[in-house]
Specification:
single chain, 284 residues, alpha+beta, Phosphorylase Kinase, domain 1, seven-stranded antiparallel sheet, 10 helices
């Protein structure tokens, strides 16, 4: 059995076009092209493409070596290189400077937008922390809104609803006194409410205290108290009904207070009046 003929591959066609194959293989490919006019036409197409690419880059190939490349060569090689076209280098530098200027302008614009956006955010931070600083909403109402936010955050937390528990009541009293200026921890045992504990929270004018109480059935009541500045408006007791919870709020002497939770109307009145009496007794 004779040896199978060696087929002509696409690599052979490229080697034939680029003259990168030996004489014997070249003769084999030439014979193949006489029998395969489609492959011959393909080589003609490649040859035309090569000529077009070569013609497109002829002008660039004749240009002097770029400064960045010539400086990377050894000193002796640079001395033997084609003389540098200084005008072209100047043009290249100018083009590079324009690109840098454009990039700097874009960066400055982006930075300005970021700064402006940040200024808008900072400008609105007070209103974010003050919940609603609208003049039509009184300070007491804003205190009640804070109490509601604290209640939603901590009342249903069965793991750590308070920072200091009722078991450390003296420490809780000292902490509240140091941070808020109010040492009163109201006692609602007569109303069937047991102290769970408390924490220091942000208020309208500074630090405030938030205390949690619990009924025998596990229902939790929140009490928010904050020291009022002398120039704040005096407000009488008011109520704000919600979906499930009701908040009572007002100002007694130098203390803004709010109670929030779900209790019956009569129970609410008893708790609120007891809180007011305790604030009066504790105030100098």
């Amino acid at each position: 059995m004779g040896k199978a003929p060696d087929p002509v591959t696409e690599a052979d066609l490229h080697g034939f076009l680029d003259e990168e194959i030996g004489p014997e293989r070249r003769a084999k490919v030439a014979e193949h092209l006489e029998q395969k006019p489609l492959d011959a036409a393909l080589i003609d197409t490649w040859r035309t493409q090569n000529e077009m690419v070569r013609g497109a880059f002829t002008r660039i190939a004749r240009e002097p070596i770029p400064l960045s490349l010539s400086l990377s060569q050894p000193l002796t090689a640079r001395a033997a290189a084609v003389p540098i076209n200084t005008r072209r280098l100047d043009l290249a530098r100018a083009a590079r400077q324009r690109r840098v200027a454009i990039a700097s302008a874009i960066a400055f614009l982006a930075g300005s937008i970021a700064v402006a956006t940040g200024a808008i955010i900072v400008q609105h931070l007070p209103s974010l922390f003050r919940l609603d600083a609208s003049p039509s909403i009184t300070v007491g109402r804003r205190v009640a809104m804070r109490a509601a936010a604290m209640y939603r955050t901590f009342a249903n937390d069965r793991t750590r609803p308070v920072e200091i528990s009722a078991a450390q009541k003296p420490e809780l009293g000292r902490w509240l006194s140091e941070r808020t200026g109010l040492s009163l921890i109201p006692d609602f045992s007569a109303e069937g409410l047991k102290l769970v504990g408390g924490r220091v929270t942000p208020g309208e004018f500074g630090a405030a205290g938030f205390l949690l109480y619990e009924t025998v059935t596990g229902e939790r009541i929140g009490v928010f108290m904050e020291r009022a500045p002398d120039d704040s408006m005096i407000e009488s007791l008011r109520a704000t009904p919600g979906d499930r919870n009701t908040s009572l709020y007002g100002r007694e002497k130098s203390t803004y207070w709010a109670i929030i939770g779900s209790l019956g109307d009569e129970w609410w009145k008893q708790v609120a009046l007891h809180l007011i009496n305790q604030i009066r007794a504790a105030s100098p």
